[in-house]
Amino acid sequence: MARFTVNASHHDPYKDFKFRLKWDGRYVAGISKVSALKRTTEVIKHRDGADPGGERKSPGASSFEPITLQRGLTQDGEFEKWALMVSKAAPLKKFQKDVRLEVLDDAGQLVLAYTIFGCWPSQYQAVPDLDDDTLVTEFEAIVLENEGWERDTSVSEPTGPVGRPQSRSARS
Hints:
There is one protein chain. By secondary structure, this protein is mostly beta strands. It has three helices and ten strands, in the order ββββββααββββα. The strands form two sheets. Strands 1, 2, 3, 6, 7, 8, 9 and 10 form an eight-stranded antiparallel β-sheet that branches.
């Protein structure tokens, strides 16, 4: 369960979401959006000497797209702290982290989990464009480069009852 250092009695924000992220052994507060996990394998085209008119395709190197994390502005400084490590040119081993993405069902039970390897922030947005004429929610964002991801196959489908989550008042 996430702990807020400033207001310890604050309700748990993870019960309202259907996913959560963890790094450095702790869940990161309030993440509301995570971009897709995408892997692309380069296609190498070549010709077979026995068939000069036909084209063959083989797999080449695979690459993993950056992952964007977004959340409303909070007092939690984890995004900024991590981005500062990179901008201060710390050694790669100091700022590269593995991140765990957990997907939950409506009852809050863990149904899928992925480990994303070798993440580091290539972009950090502290605040969006500020305009008092719009009703846009302010958010911060971080873009994570990564060296790939893998599904945690030890996470299996929940065997307990699957149902609607408790009401907010029953969870507090």
